Amino acid sequence: MPDLFQFPERLARAPSVAAACGELVSHMEPLGFTVYAIGALPHPDAPYPADFLVTNWPQTWQKTYFDRQFGERDPTLRAIAGAGRPFTITDLRMGRMGFQPSPEELEVLDFAAGLGLPHALIVPIYRAQGYKGIACLVGAGPDPDPETRARLHFMAEHAHDRLRELSAAARIDPEIRLSKRETEILILARQGLTDAGIAEATDISIRTVRFHFENARKKLAARSRAEAIAIAVGRHLLPA
């Protein structure tokens, strides 16, 4: 297992977001955790990722999170708002975060478990000037014991700060503008419409829908449609 106390130094030497993420995975994988989602904490009125978000969640998860509006009922966000301390998925399921998740909230956790990712440590992060962030370290497990929780918590805090720094340096053009059609298509996609549904709603062809999607994705430097929507929401390019 890599030396935990060398982790901050190795992160500091990482020249890019990808390199820093590689260091994170190499340190947490021996503990049974391979997936991460690290970034600014979404605003309660817009419960989808902000412009600072680094994740390797499977594409299936990212698409489903938007298509089924998981952000409206994600119990991890509710737990952070109520407790403000690190917790595990087991803590959530067992009602240790001050509430018993509803069936709709459990659906979010169950979907992740169905992807082979039943366990996670979720770490709320607080920094100067009121900044709020989140680091989720997810995997097959096992459920982290106290020592593993402490290790993952240490990694989460340091990885968040380095990724925030690297992401700020690589941030896309703040003056970027989406066209009216690109904005309309992203709004409809966020509402869960398929390409065919968007084409029908806007009276254009499916091919044209995909053309505008691709243009928006490139402008936002996003790797997927789900990420394009997340970035657009975070940059206030779509209405709340």
UniProtKB/TrEMBL annotation:
InterPro entries: Sig_transdc_resp-reg_C-effctor, TF_LuxR_autoind-bd_dom, TF_LuxR_autoind-bd_dom_sf, Tscrpt_reg_LuxR_C, WH-like_DNA-bd_sf. Keywords: DNA-binding, Transcription, Transcription regulation. The keyword DNA-binding applies. Residues 171-236 form the HTH luxR-type domain. It comes from the Bacteria. One of its GO terms (biological process) is regulation of DNA-templated transcription. Gene3D superfamilies: Transcription factor LuxR-like, autoinducer-binding domain (3.30.450.80), Winged helix-like DNA-binding domain superfamily/Winged helix DNA-binding domain (1.10.10.10). Coiled coil: none annotated. One of its GO terms (molecular function) is DNA binding. This is HTH luxR-type domain-containing protein. The lineage of its organism: Bacteria, Pseudomonadati, Pseudomonadota, Alphaproteobacteria, Rhodobacterales.
